[in-house]
Amino acid sequence: MWDDRKPSAALLRIMRAIQVGAFGGIERKRTMKTFITALTLGSLIAVPAFLRSSNAAPLIDAARARAIHDCNVAASTYKQYLWGHFESDTYRACMAEHGQQE
Fold first, then answer.
1. Phi and psi torsions of 55, nearest 5°
2. pTM of this prediction?
3. pLDDT 10s digits, 59-70
């Protein structure tokens, strides 16, 4: 008895909308799976490019490191609360003498 009945037109429209994805149905799930898969694969490929290897060159060279150290020692004798901006002026002048940016 129930097998002979056909679904109403409204029920067919609702079923069709769910299949097409109007209410977040099958199509939306497939799209989200594709997006998550692409994001995962992209991150697996891109992340190693941003990581530094253990034997990569240091971030600053030895001359700059030495200049920073020397200039900090030279400027540390002048405390800002006593000498005002003379401490920073000394540091800047020292870095310029070493041929480095501040």
1. -105, 25
2. 0.44
3. 788 899 999 999
